Amino acid sequence: xxxxxxxxxALAIVPLAAPQHALAxxxxxxxxxxxxxxxxxxxxxxxxxxxxxxxxxxxSVAVEKVWKGKVDAYVDIVTADNDAACGxxxxxxxxxxxxxxxxxxxxxxxxxxxxxxxxxxxxxxNWLNGDKxxxxxxxxxxxxxxxxxxxxxxxxxxxxxxxxxxxAKEPANGFSDVPESHPNFAAITYVKEQGMVQGYDDGTYGPxxxxxxxxxxxxILEATVDSNDIDTxxxxxxxxxxxxxxWFGDYVCMAKQTGVIGGYPDGSFKPxxxxxxxxxxxxxxxAFDIPFAKDDIWWKPYVFALAxxxxxxxxxxxxxxxxxxxxxxxxxxxxKMGM
Length: 339
Description:
With 339 residues, the chain is of the alpha+beta class. The chain folds into three domains: 32-129, CATH 2.40.50.120; 135-169, no CATH class; 185-338, no CATH class. It is built from nine helices and eight strands. The strands form two sheets. Strands 1-2-3-5-4 form a five-stranded mixed beta barrel. Strands 7-8 form a two-stranded antiparallel sheet. β7 and β8 (147-148) form a beta hairpin. α7 (277-287) packs across α8 (300-308).
């Protein structure tokens, strides 16, 4: 015995004014995909009963098949009382395909929704049974990292009255590309608040961009040495590729005089080269005067010293790994918090 499943669908239209029955309701012809995307519920069912309440008709529908949405075996539906008010006439015990939208917990339909009798809808049925383009449920992502859903949990499209990002809060750290969910958020916020970094003119920080040797040296010196000492540092013996007039010249001068940097055997500093974790660890350990034990492998004392105080970011995997701006902030933050 085949059980008969029933859904009652209530389709109600509340007119802004009393409907003018002398005027026919008109609709712009739509496509199946548009009807489907706009609906919260798409099903095939059989109306079993009708109740009249003023200008609305409430139908109790037995559900046979559902293409979109979730309903029980029976669903209540209300529609306007006649086609002049865009109401749908459903014949009792006659199969119908319903496109309905939900409002205040009630399902509604009208003659502009795509609802039609099943006996005249073989093409529509075939289309519904085939592959359809489902609405994209990728969330809105705002410049500050806030996200807003585009669909409900059961896949229905959310239509916002205004662009959702319009009222998104400003990022607490002031950088549009470092949301609170970013793994380096706290660290980047800290170095910004301490005046160590300013970011770019477009309001971004570039947490995933590699940082070069000159930039890293400047930031570490600003975190550990008095600015007057940096400004007054002078040397006629810097590096072959660094002059005192370079924007980073005073920082390199102070770093070399205090033993924070030593340069390469050929007498160069290579300021534009990306810095790796091994090089960065040496600069940080010496600049912050962190204790370390000597080792035959030059980088081990510095990397291990950082590790002992929790100064290595979770992104670290290899001493030759290039450092990002996010890593730089994380190292400074961890060292400062751990000291």
